[in-house]
Amino acid sequence: MDDPLVYLNGAMTPLSAAHIPVLDRGFIFGDGIYEVIPVYQRRMFRADQHLARLFRSLEAIGIPNPHNKEEWLQRIQQVMDAHEADDQMVYLQVTRGVARRAHAFPKEVTPTVFIMTNPIVLPTAAAREHGVACVSMEDRRWLHCEIKSISLLGNVLAAQNAAEHQVAESIQFRDDYLSEASASNVWIVKDGVLMGPPKDHLILEGIRYALIEELCAQLSIPFEMRRISRAEVFAADEIMLSSATKEVLAVVKLDEQTIGNGLPGPIYQQLYAAYQLAKAA
Questions:
Q1: Residue 262: is it exposed, middle or buried by C-beta count within 10 angstroms (0-12/13-18/19+)?
Q2: pLDDT for 171-209, tens place per residue?
Q3: With 90 as the cut, is the pLDDT of residue 281 above it?
Q4: What is the distance between the alpha carbons of residues 33 and 51, in angstroms, rounded to a whole number?
Q5: Residue 256's closest CA among 145, 153, 166?
Q6: Cβ(96)–Cβ(106) under 8 Å?
Q7: Judging by DSSP bridges, how do beta strands 238-243 and 5-8 pair with one another?
Q8: From the candidates 69, 107, 148, 279, which is the catalytic residue?
Q9: Which residues partner with 196 through β-bridges?
Q10: Strand pairing report for 132-138 and 247-254
């Protein structure tokens, strides 16, 4: 679809005609939040959890939620129905709205609401079979990473770092402890135990965080959330990325160091298979 329909402030419109004023605080300050919901066979995957995170992010930065849950679902469905693809990636964005440029919150301003969708692009069969390479870097982002903010310059720079190294992701460390990648959560496996960083202000709690914990329980895989040192990451038997678009993806090389035996490992294989079953349920 060359000019897909999108939702903007109460109306469906062609993407080319969707415009916002230059004084929208999302444009001026990055003052807004977003959410991304995967859709498989025209069914939203874990929509309740995605909307709950949307609501948490809105509350965290003091933007009044413009819609209740059912209204959000209706608007998302409207956008999904306007597109041909059965598997989609829905993008939602809410900014504080349009106001005279001043840093403090304006009074009596109406939030800007935007929804679009695109066909979902998942990792290739080759990436699944052989795994991917990553590079490490220092995490220099702000200290409210738990908010899914549209202020993503730190993530953009991390993604560009990965692109310049011709790898899949930049895996970040803050004070020599694992945080997350530019657009993924990061997991390690050691001696059969799956481990991830704690859910705090240093990472965005991916929706797959709870899902992977659930899958580990189903598969009887020991699961821990704790601070993980750089040394532990490089000594891991397996490293994995998780996100809405990557689902679960094995990392087989980090900074030119081979991880494990250089192939996607058995815990990854189990989690990936279980993930596919969860999508189809």
A1: exposed
A2: 999 999 999 999 999 999 999 999 999 999 999 988 888
A3: no
A4: 12
A5: 166
A6: yes
A7: unpaired
A8: 148
A9: 225
A10: parallel
